[in-house]
Amino acid sequence: MMENIVEMPKEQLIGTVQKMMSEGYRFVTATCVDNGNETLDVIYHFDKEYELINYRLTVGKDEEIPSISKIYFGAFLVENEMKELFGLKITDIVIDYGGHLLLSDDELDAPMAKRQIVIEKKGEKQNA
Question: Where is the NADH:ubiquinone oxidoreductase 30kDa subunit domain (predicted)?
Fold first, then answer.
């Protein structure tokens, strides 16, 4: 179980991140989790004096969220990674690799995203 986690609506993302910067927090990383339904959790991890604070944002897989890379420049790497591996829609990343930070054109789109697989068996469909 993760400690020091605060739920945050996406409308508060930029304001919260700006507040963390102004209060001297270091951006550690962000984590993306596919909830297995139509939502993703994005957890932003911040540190100050060895205390982690985590902000969780739950968004629909079709929703866009703004990049925090204009506030914490280094976030562009993890944002590109989440965008590419999970299909998270992030806008205005300061350096956007357009889906090719880790994957080539031959790779599966969003390979870390959970997918429902349908198996057809002699005229019947089964969900796996």
Answer: 7-92
Domains held by the chain: number: 1
Separation CA 72–CA 4 (nearest Å): 21
Measure the CA–CA gap between 107 and 110, rounded to whole angstroms.
9
Using DSSP's 3-state secondary structure scheme, residue 14 falls into helix
Q: Read out DSSP for 17-83?
A: HHHHHHTTPEEEEEEEEE-SSSEEEEEEEEEETTEEEEEEEEEETT-EEE-STTTSTTHHHHHHHHH
Give the residue among 92, 102, 79 at the shortest CA–CA distance from 30. Answer: 79
Answer yes or no: are the C-beta atoms of 67 and 91 closer than 8 Å: yes
| CATH number, domain containing residue 117 | 3.30.460.80
Domain that holds residue 75: 5-127
Under 8 Å between Cβ of 97 and 84: yes
Please say whether the beta carbons of 42 and 32 come within 8 A. Answer: yes
